[in-house]
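Researcher: I've been going back and forth with a colleague about how ABM domain-containing protein might be arranged in three dimensions. Neither of us has a model we trust, so I'd like an independent prediction. The organism is Calocera viscosa, in case that matters for your notes. Sequence below.
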Amino acid sequence: MASNASEIKGSSIHLIAQMTALPGKEETILKHLKNVQDNALSDNEPGCNRYDVLRYGDSFAVIENYSTTKDVDIHMASEQFQAFAKELEGLAVPGTFILKFFGDA
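Model: Here is an independent structure prediction for ABM domain-containing protein. You can compare it with whatever you and your colleague have in mind.
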């Protein structure tokens, strides 16, 4: 596991993001994640191979896969991701946002 995409060596980069919504913010998080997902799986991000949004109650996880570190950078610079990142502090329980990077085994 790595703390950023540039540490991953191999044929692709896998990300797992997790967070817990503040009370009443679940649908706002879901809306943001679906917007990010729609963009990630479009022609705007051809290097995004997977973007799954998972939910159980107030807990969310996102499983992502990218071809290169440049593709991760493109994703994180997208308008949709930036809009979510800007609001995340007011949406998630403090300390529950976790982002992990993995390479192929």
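Researcher: What would you highlight for our discussion?
Model: I'd start with this: The chain has a mean pLDDT of 94. After that, consider the following. Strands lie at 13-20, 48-56, 59-66, 98-103.
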